[in-house]
Protein 1
Amino acid sequence: MQATIITIGDEILIGQIVDSNSAFIAQELNTIGINVKQIFSIADNALAIKESITQAKKDTDIIILTGGLGPTKDDITKKTLCNYFNDTMLFYPEIEKHVKAIFKKYDLKYIAINKHQAEVPSKATVLFNEYGTAPGMWFDQEEKTIISLPGVPFEMKHLIREKVLAKLQEKYQRSHIAHQTILTYGKGESELAQDIAGWEDALPKFIKLAYLPSYGKVRLRLSGLHENKETLEKAIQTATDELIPLIEANFIGFEDDSLIQQLKKSLNKNKATVSTAESFTGGKLAGELTSISGSSSYFVGSIVSYATRIKEDVLQVPKDLIEKHSVVSKEVAEAMALGAQKIMQSDYAIATTGNAGPTKGDADAELGTVVIAIAHPNGVFSEIYNYGQPRDKVVKRAINQAIYLLLKKINKNEENMFASFK
Amino acid sequence: MQATIITIGDEILIGQIVDSNSAFIAQELNTIGINVKQIFSIADNALAIKESITQAKKDTDIIILTGGLGPTKDDITKKTLCNYFNDTMLFYPEIEKHVKAIFKKYDLKYIAINKHQAEVPSKATVLFNEYGTAPGMWFDQEEKTIISLPGVPFEMKHLIREKVLAKLQEKYQRSHIAHQTILTYGKGESELAQDIAGWEDALPKFIKLAYLPSYGKVRLRLSGLHENKETLEKAIQTATDELIPLIEANFIGFEDDSLIQQLKKSLNKNKATVSTAESFTGGKLAGELTSISGSSSYFVGSIVSYATRIKEDVLQVPKDLIEKHSVVSKEVAEAMALGAQKIMQSDYAIATTGNAGPTKGDADAELGTVVIAIAHPNGVFSEIYNYGQPRDKVVKRAINQAIYLLLKKINKNEENMFASFK
């Protein structure tokens, strides 16, 4: 069973926003065995909308459109669909009531053009949008289905999860799709590929392997498509079991077991806590450490010492240490980590200092220079890296590396570094 | 002049990664007057690659492909293009030399399969990739151009900026494209639309208006396409000048003048500094405040008090205040802001506390409840909001609102709130 996702909006085509809706929809469709063949991003333009639906109908059965359902004049998806299906609009009083209630809740003025939000082409099944004013629409064309959803991410997500998936499962018989992602850290993709070449060549034809490198991580993704669910799951499991020993030294975990999830497991297992002292990462390391639910079980807090004087006044880094070694140095990073550990009374503390660019800061260190220090119950250590440019890459790479260093430190007494996750 | 962007990679179609490359390419093409008609995301599959190029050639002259140029077996773009153009591979010793140097720099092992990175179809012009091992490729087919770039964002960006744009400008005569984006905050899109309906109807035919709402912001985007550059720029300027007085109370600034840029201007103008004390935002507000270059001119630092005891121990929020009012209260938020202001010795301080969800924390406040406090040179104030769910939306909305509240406070003595930006 194949689907096309069509995102409608000039803002995507001029690069003003990044289309993150399609990734969400693709993930959700995959969970019920529907494969996304292609994603089209097109303009707020009636001809483009009609042509892309016609094109999508050639190859795929399910077409999901997002965007262009707002109340303003640039939003033309509903009108275009009405026209495409030779249909007329029907007014739904219960939708208008709901729209008015939303306006009241957010203290916004309900005005004439909002009334149009309660109109839906008569051939469509309404997908009632609890979180927003634009209803979703479901059109059946024999075996084909065309679905139109608002582009606002949390409204779209609500409709996919609460309405669309169940209706699709009801309408279609589907093949089975399965993915398994194995996260590695610290080795390049070509070297990994060499390590596992024999295993890769022996994979069954219905399983594909992909290498997904990202800031020091490489994800190995196995994807399979098969009529028989049991055969598929068994083959993926066997392939995984055979793979792990080949990549042991770099194995971190599975799909949802990202670096940060693994850190959570390790800290929780040891009933340990962590805090951060951040310079160039500016709070983003703390942001990453608190990005998963349950983070309050291990994360205590952070001191972002952006100005040099905060390193001295709050983190208690001696002034002469900074003068002697500069703010981008192992000595200062280690003092920051010990300062955070002491102030936050955490078992571990991570400190970051560096020159992320694009211009040099208070220090003379080369652009891209990064120092990461880890304070632990028995002391402190630090590492220096150069992650080049641009700024954004330096910050992301350093955050991953900081989490990895801490994880390695916590787990180093295990028989195998990541033995606890197997 | 119209372009198609084609991103190649199963990881996009299963939703494992979000395609942010296309937005970058679209922006850059726009700056040289090339309009992106459509974006296709397709599988790592030879047939899909060939079909999408054929489809794109129908409507557009310039086709830019990204992805699938790595050294591993799942990367098939180069081989597919070689086949599509009935071509053979040519080995470039200078590319191999460069690839070896990169492996040496990052301390990676150079192995046999990396040699293929130095092969390029003979009909292609090589776009030398200084930052990576996969060369870009440029194919001329009379008036059409097919360009293949690596999918790694900073490599792709380098090739677009340093090689592709100049070559496209050399090859094609182009119409002129111009955009103007006006940022508003605090009013819904339908009410804004009503306020400016007369102005919108009077816009010249070659100018389009779009409304782009996002977490309390609404961007109004004017886009124009015209043969004559002067006519176009004048029309956009006139439209903008007429628009501003109609939306005065909600006007924040222009394209690059996001909320945070405006805050930077206001703080710099007043030679003032800011710090933050963060609970549920977990460092992400500090991350936002340090996301633009030059942020060290106004941002001092942050205390992320994720654990309640850090609110007491570090931020000096009285224990009985927390017991009496709970951590999610105006009283605690204000004490946090004053604590940060004092410790960081900043002129202003922003504090956040709330229940972002998905489960309740230390407080009994309803999910989605957010308190933002602003400490300023003459005192402190706070506001309570409920931003509903999900968690991610609550955090983003609160960060925007916090920056907005501070901006309003700093500028309130101006004749008009945002008078300084006009």
Protein 2
Amino acid sequence: MPDQPDAVYARKLQEVLGGQYDEITVAMQYGFQAWNIHIPGKYKDLLYGIAAEEFGHVEMLAKMIAQLLEKSPMGITDKDVQSDPAVAAIIGGTDVQHAIVAGAGARPVDSMGNPWSGSYVTASGNLLADFMSNANAEMQGRLQVARLYHMTDDHGVRDMLSFLLARDTMHQNQWIAAARELQAENAESLPVPSNFPQSKEHTPVSYQYIIFSDGAAAAEGTWAKGEAPDGKGEFTYLSAPDTSAPMPAPTHPDSRLFGTTELPNIVEKTASAVQDKLHKE
Amino acid sequence: MPDQPDAVYARKLQEVLGGQYDEITVAMQYGFQAWNIHIPGKYKDLLYGIAAEEFGHVEMLAKMIAQLLEKSPMGITDKDVQSDPAVAAIIGGTDVQHAIVAGAGARPVDSMGNPWSGSYVTASGNLLADFMSNANAEMQGRLQVARLYHMTDDHGVRDMLSFLLARDTMHQNQWIAAARELQAENAESLPVPSNFPQSKEHTPVSYQYIIFSDGAAAAEGTWAKGEAPDGKGEFTYLSAPDTSAPMPAPTHPDSRLFGTTELPNIVEKTASAVQDKLHKE
Amino acid sequence: MPDQPDAVYARKLQEVLGGQYDEITVAMQYGFQAWNIHIPGKYKDLLYGIAAEEFGHVEMLAKMIAQLLEKSPMGITDKDVQSDPAVAAIIGGTDVQHAIVAGAGARPVDSMGNPWSGSYVTASGNLLADFMSNANAEMQGRLQVARLYHMTDDHGVRDMLSFLLARDTMHQNQWIAAARELQAENAESLPVPSNFPQSKEHTPVSYQYIIFSDGAAAAEGTWAKGEAPDGKGEFTYLSAPDTSAPMPAPTHPDSRLFGTTELPNIVEKTASAVQDKLHKE
Amino acid sequence: MPDQPDAVYARKLQEVLGGQYDEITVAMQYGFQAWNIHIPGKYKDLLYGIAAEEFGHVEMLAKMIAQLLEKSPMGITDKDVQSDPAVAAIIGGTDVQHAIVAGAGARPVDSMGNPWSGSYVTASGNLLADFMSNANAEMQGRLQVARLYHMTDDHGVRDMLSFLLARDTMHQNQWIAAARELQAENAESLPVPSNFPQSKEHTPVSYQYIIFSDGAAAAEGTWAKGEAPDGKGEFTYLSAPDTSAPMPAPTHPDSRLFGTTELPNIVEKTASAVQDKLHKE
Amino acid sequence: MPDQPDAVYARKLQEVLGGQYDEITVAMQYGFQAWNIHIPGKYKDLLYGIAAEEFGHVEMLAKMIAQLLEKSPMGITDKDVQSDPAVAAIIGGTDVQHAIVAGAGARPVDSMGNPWSGSYVTASGNLLADFMSNANAEMQGRLQVARLYHMTDDHGVRDMLSFLLARDTMHQNQWIAAARELQAENAESLPVPSNFPQSKEHTPVSYQYIIFSDGAAAAEGTWAKGEAPDGKGEFTYLSAPDTSAPMPAPTHPDSRLFGTTELPNIVEKTASAVQDKLHKE
Amino acid sequence: MPDQPDAVYARKLQEVLGGQYDEITVAMQYGFQAWNIHIPGKYKDLLYGIAAEEFGHVEMLAKMIAQLLEKSPMGITDKDVQSDPAVAAIIGGTDVQHAIVAGAGARPVDSMGNPWSGSYVTASGNLLADFMSNANAEMQGRLQVARLYHMTDDHGVRDMLSFLLARDTMHQNQWIAAARELQAENAESLPVPSNFPQSKEHTPVSYQYIIFSDGAAAAEGTWAKGEAPDGKGEFTYLSAPDTSAPMPAPTHPDSRLFGTTELPNIVEKTASAVQDKLHKE
């Protein structure tokens, strides 16, 4: 539990409770991947287990936020409080809905007050793609927790973050291990989806690094020459796009959609020119 | 250009134009990563270049959608059309805003009509985290394009998708190559962020696989034993959570937030019991 | 499990998985109310318990949706399929992201594809207000499940809905019982929040039914005469609003916000009239 | 009108203008319920009348916000202002769009700047469910106004809030009275919808309190024994869930959705094992 | 009232009830402009009056939608209905929340089911900017109504649309008249805001048409030569951007944000190169 | 580049990067209008060119924001910083996601943290409507930049804003010139869409100014008498609405939607009255 209340920090902590890359997101993401999975066994059990753990982290963070808000000045009228600019400053940085809407409780929103959204969840049914998505979520999440660690001196809060950092270390490693295992078992490989027939993609550009902007330094990278990570091609290098795709003609949809098209105007303008001429004569 | 109009397919194609993991997203994501980058050179040039290429794909898809909508029946009154259930069925599957709002044009929305959102963009300033996010986006994106490939027989559309599939192959490989290069150069390593001092995380659980749910098969994975992918620890295994974190006491925030707390009730109930007793006497 | 696949029905079922008033909402709502609660004991345990049950319902629905999608035609190219208007019609009514994004899996969205939002959750810290919110959620939820029941003949689906309907019956009753218990224990009463001092509200209009529109029949209701449900006042009746609040003067904010105000114009117009006059002379 | 400008408070007041449970919400909610109603008479007139009154409250709040913003420092450059930390603190707590976007005017957003959303509106066509939703909205709304009352000392603002508190008292009572009247007239009863045939729900669990989590205190409540509020059943008590629903087999959707399934892997792995063996020999 | 039910058309009509540019939007937009206005008199009265009229249109559309939904097949189980592909097709095109959520009622959403958003409203406090925004809204709105007119043969619906088209004609004309009147009275002129001192803008590029893309035909327009509409400058023409803004150096924020910067890497790489050398020796 | 860091101002600047009316919006809006256009030539080239320029402004603003954030205190623990209320005040006004999520980088959000939304984009296919929408966007945009100009003293920032103000002057003029040119060429005229047959609108009210609210001053405007701006009608004036549209009967949808209707109640109430009577006898 925190050493002392801190409503401004409570707001910041909302990011790892209800933000794009954090506990509600990973709990729901691993849940949906588990419920939609096509194979029984270790991957399914892994997803179920970590989902359950992450729901525990949601609770841990929600309770910490409520503790941080408990005795904090939240803009409630009190002459001493109001006349102290330092306190006023603290009030300036709070999530004002913590007081007005939740009565000093946690909320399913991020640190800027945006409600958590189902659009944060990725669950495609392709496990290699999804495990990479999970590794990505754990990386962004651990990065945010590490940043938050330096924004407080509170021992109770730091203890909790220290625990979350360790679990994020575990989960990053674990999704990467799982992604490797999938590939080792030939269940899936790069490029995802690997069982889409290579013959159906336009292979001349499948491993070609094409420079579309001014910076030439990009040619120095390992993505511009040598074997590609998928082991199925060799990177080549093209200093500028050479294909100028032929532009299709503009569309002329049904006139009852009242778009602006050239045809009626030409007719009309001709007619009006004729009329003008007749009038003058 | 498409062989023929197909308003239902135009709607589906919106997913890879304006959905969570597609062309507007990657164009903006690589753009924001480039604008916020902290180092000059090859990574910056790479981000700029691919961002520019992806904006080209946005245009390519928008134009294809407009072509697919050009002559398609879109529910405009016409006796022949209305009495044909097959045509009516087609209408059932369209994005009705294509006709009503855009006059047969593309829109910055996904295949269910949700507007594209800035929350899809990831740009954290940590390049390893962000390159993993980019690899993830290209995997989910290529998967969606591969699915869309089988939902049409149109040669023009398939040609375009075939091209996009090849570029997604390239981009998946490239972000993975870039992530490896970052690690080879010691710019960053696992777990992200690697320069957060390990001493500050609760290391006893940093490599511990803890079973939180029923499925035991997860213990068979490479994430439950052996060296972790970050090379900094050894996975251990725990068959059930052993730490029962002590529950903090419930909070009692300022009474002017009018939450329900036990204290006032006890007072009130005692008072009312006393009153009751007095009344009866 | 369902008798047979039905992708159109799978889409409809999303409403009670990821819509405003359904399983994810109630699971999260009861969770946040439990984490933020100010008192230990029966109400806290109740909230925890029902939250856990509702997470179970989330899983139940997600799996049913995946089963319904398993073998369903989802617009994948196939001559027989495409030429059959009935099948095409079915495709018209699906959530196209089920196939393109989730690979035939459930998603955290409602039946029109809107992602689930944290803004659906209510947790104010005042238990009477929140239990009423819970009763409301269970009523709207049961109503939607009842409607869905008649939209399918599938025995497996109906069995699941029949189970959910029974639990919603239980939960409606239970939140109403809990709301009554809170009042019986004097923890809270109507109007919420009951411990806001009545002296601070403008009591002359606290129980006054004022007619603001044409319909006179509203005067016949029990809300227009007799004792109010809170037992603290008597309803009175006013056939039309009688107070015409004095209109404040329009605001004149800082001119550097460049709003349109009368003052500068008058000056300018006078100046320009003078100039005009001078020019003419 | 307010005694003096207060841009920080103006922001807080946005919650009851444009938040989830406030004036725009109730005005629109009662409006949609009125427009969709299936019966003429007192309920319809009630909905129309209160909707009209609530639109008046929207105006009242919007104008008060504009007055509070009129002369407030809003971060506009001015040496005296900038060097005063108290003023700077005030600026810290404002809605910066008040100045930049609205030129010191009210906006249709909540106190954290989230735009008002049509998803806040409930109008199901079932009047008992909807009147409960209305009572819920008035409770949450009055709670928020009561909290805001203590966040200011301004007499003009408190006068307005005092008036709104009184009307919320009226409206809470009124929707509860209306809900009772509906039940007294047998138009609808608990559980909602009451005319769904009870025979079609899985009645063995309709009144069963099942403990899904650790807290045993919940068994003490009136929701665990005795007659249920709907008068149609008797609460029973079950100390733990006893039904372990049989898990359905994982799904195997169309392979052209490129999900990860066990089948191809087994085939592939066998093939590759055979190849390996052959190579070694 | 409509000749007959049509649930598919009811969904389309939602666009002009709850979409970006329609009745709820204009009603709320004119309302907020009126409540925030800085001057009394004709402009204020105009805004109030049209706002009131538009709320009437909201009601008109909501009721029409409810009528269109009244007897329409909405996917409710019925063997005859289900086996008729034409009916199934109709079901494919409906807003399924009309039945499940609203019980055959109108909803505050657009034709793709997106909830109406407060972000659609424009009210800046600058009347010329806002009247242009109003004219824009009426143009997009009338365009959508005109498109909808051709998507039905129903006499009742067409009568209503015919009325709305006429009012949109009036309102387009009126906002343009009001914008002209503001300019005639010197209350505001182009460019908005006209009282921002011209000396503070970078005037060399204030009237310069610069070609940033390939198309040269744009040089033929009246925007490339001659007097500008604001009467304050002469358009000039530049065939390509000539200023290459100097690129700022990449940022190096606080290292506790754990971004990727070159510095630590160079140090680390040098150290590791030294170590490598030592090891080899 | 800025004279010095200013995280509070960086947040404000987000409004013109990722807000409703600013650089991402106009870049995408002109892009979609260009991709969907129905005619080749000058209008198309104009749209492409300005879209490209606006993408350049997006980059300019993103980089400026990153520079402003570079060395700014962002709530990172540091005793000196924390104990200084002025610094704390600054922290109060920042976008906390700038530090936590983006590591001191720009984000695709507005100044209150709302993610940029595809719903901000207007592209209808009707060029006159769209050019008016573009003029509107440039007006609101320039107004916001002008307001931001006075919220800082930083020379580097003011230089950039001064440049943007000049380009907004150009673009306002240019879209108005383009709108006039379209009309001069008879491609489109008022009211939009001008080629919708006038005979199909309810012409008696097409030019009638009807007073719907109390303010009589609106009758003084040029919108109440004289020729309408479209040159196709004469404004007339009506002091109050005279048509009282006949109210349709309430709807009675399918009873399986469980709405509240009068019929079943009457039956039920009669039955129950009969039963009551029988019981009593």
